[in-house]
Amino acid sequence: MRQETQGIINGFALLVTAGIAIFALTLPATRYVVSYLDPFLVGLGRFVFAGFIAAMIVTALKVPVPTQNQVVQLIIVALWASHSVQRWQ
Questions:
Q1: pTM given for the model
Q2: What is the number of structural domains in the chain?
Q3: How confident is the model over 61-83, as pLDDT tens digits?
Q4: Is the four-CA dihedral 27, 32, 35, 36 of positive or negative sign?
Q5: What is the extent of the structural domain holding 73?
Q6: pLDDT, tens digit (0-9, with 9 covering 90-100), for 15-44
Q7: SS3 of 65, please?
Q8: How many helices (H) and strands (E) would you count in the chain?
């Protein structure tokens, strides 16, 4: 395997490991914070923080803007997923 390819794989593995570790800490942190703050506020904070991190990564990697077809497909999947979640409740 080329050294450049190995470096990319190692970097990706490091990011995945960091992401898993950070996600694993969100449950105990959320349980602790919810006892002091409104659960809606905690959920909103997690949403905003995750969006900020995702925006930084997308900007740093210069990810292209999705095409109109991709946006339509994403909306269809999101609507289907939200409908499925509502049926289970």
A1: 0.56
A2: 1
A3: 888 999 999 999 999 998 988 87
A4: negative
A5: 3-88
A6: 888 888 888 888 888 889 889 999 899 888
A7: coil
A8: 3, 0
